[in-house]
User: What shape does this take?
Amino acid sequence: MMSARTRAALAIGTAAAAASRRLGRGSGEVIGGKAALRLDPRVLEALAAGRTTATVSGTNGKTTTTRLLAAAVGTAGPVASNGGGANMAAGVVSALSRSRSDRAVLEVDEIWLPRVAAATTPAAAVLLNLTRDQLDRSNETRRIAALWRALGATLPDTVAVANADDPLVTWAALGFARQVWVGAGQRWTLDAMVCPHCAQLLLREDGGWHCVGCGLARPVPDVDVVDATTLSDRGRTYELDLRLPGAVNAGNAAMALAAARLAFGVDPEAALAAMATVGDVGGRYAVVPLAGRHARLLLAKNPAGWLEMLGLLDEGPPRPVVIHFHSRVADGRDPSWIWDVPLERLAGRTVHVSGERAEDMVLRLAYAGVGAVRHPTPEAAAEAAAPAGGDVDVLATYTAFRELTVRAS
Amino acid sequence: MTIRIALVYPELLGTYGDGGNALVLAARARWRGLAAEVVEIRAGTPVPAGLDIYLYGGGEDDPQALAAAGTRASPGLRRAVEGGATVLAVCAGLQVLGAGFPGTDGRRHAGAELVDLDTVPGTPRAVGDLVVAADPTLGLPLLYGYENHGGRTLLGPDASPFGAVRLGLGNGHPDQPGVDGAIAQVGAGRVLATYLHGPVLAQNPALADLLLTGVVGTLPPWEVDPAGEPAAALRRARARQTRVH
Assistant: This one.
């Protein structure tokens, strides 16, 4: 039973969200949630009470995995979810206040996970990966892993659904009472070269990893990605038929499969069938018109994400490439990390570049042996990339991506 | 001859794209018809003597401590510099080559003592654009880059500043305000150290060419610098963004 205060807080939050929508300021999710939280800081606890919940957190893949898991859980009835990517406490409050369903799948920002998980006591905490995202926030991945590890000790009934290929996530998950390990993959290794536990060197070999000091090592996965179209769960194999491309999404699906079974009792086959229906996620992989071309939008907001997207470009016949590149606050103001991305893999192509920091990208590409031309707008870049029209792949950093999806809608 | 470039502990000192410095040096040598080889010195192995240019990059606290321990156990580095090699050390790399620096827990770690400098903790963390007017004897244009460090560095009598800070913090020590980095002569060789990352050699190709000149004497002429126009465009953009030019 909700307190009068909680009910009043929710009513005012709903009114604030509606007002925000009327003023054309977006969906109102964040404003409504913030208003409710200000009036009743415990509104999240009240809203989550009695629901079976899974949280989804990590640097990359949160929104996509949340969508896949919500689809899987949705096979057994309605599910509350913040599918729009508003992933701090306010966005979670808003998602839960819109739905009375007794199941919830919540995307949660890495730093907000302790606060949101303490309030919602999830049955499963899905822990995807931890890699550098914004260079101006230093030493962050190790610090977040430590926060997650400490969180685990306060949630005795929560199962960590954890990526065994990420040493930081593995170490964090070991703070929980129970773990289900998923071999979800992690091609980017530069943020986990030393052991999060003892600061000695981590060695990687034969697809595994281990610490030369304390012996922390990759756990044997319960759920694994066999190849791009096959998952295994406790020895049984399942065919994967995703509309979402790339190995990275096979990993996301494996994480969702494990959480759906553990937290919600969804049968793997039903889960996979539901996940196969998920198309674009908040514009990711969506094909939109751009200067009359068919532009496939690829979000690449940090080195780990770039590595996955470069892998995606190699699948199928080569398509013209546009890079739309900003370094605003939400992207991290310092774009030095592009020198850690193996853009040499685009050598031999000519890439067309736009965005506020196009100059940084063009110089990087020059040293990578990639022809690069700077353009004033993404439209001009797309026109030059595909002079006769047709398909274009557009890689964009976070704010640049948002700009393109807003333009296309 | 082949210009041999050591990229020291890239797994530990690779947080801020500083691996790009090796890429830039090797490319600028090869574009001029000079042979160049990048040798990655893996973490857990000593830094060997016998290379021409040693590159140290930026890193986070725990990896930095490992890099310092590895360097301390590497007599080859001092031998190489005394014999005429050049070191470019950036950010955590600068701190590693000094007397010591603070770790995550506030505990002090010992450095390699190759350069007469010492680093102590400071707040707030210096994060943002850094623009440096290099020591005039280096003959370089304004240097653009970024900084991201919590240390405050004090130079001893055997080191001089790498340059004067035009924007940002640089060494940031209250006893020596307004300077960045260090220049130290070690035997026949030299250490250049700075808080500029970006990577510094990509944004400031004249500094890259200065390092190459230190190895081969005079650089052969070339018709066109393949990165010349993109670098000039980036430097114009950086001047516009930082309003320092």
Notes: Residues 4-22 of chain A form the longest helix (19 residues). The two ends of chain A are 40 Å apart (CA to CA). Chain A has a mean pLDDT of 92. Chain A touches chain B at residues 132, 135-136, 138-139, 142, 190, 193-194, 199-201, 212, 333-334, 336-340, 357, 359-360, 362-367, 372, 374 (CB under 8 Å).
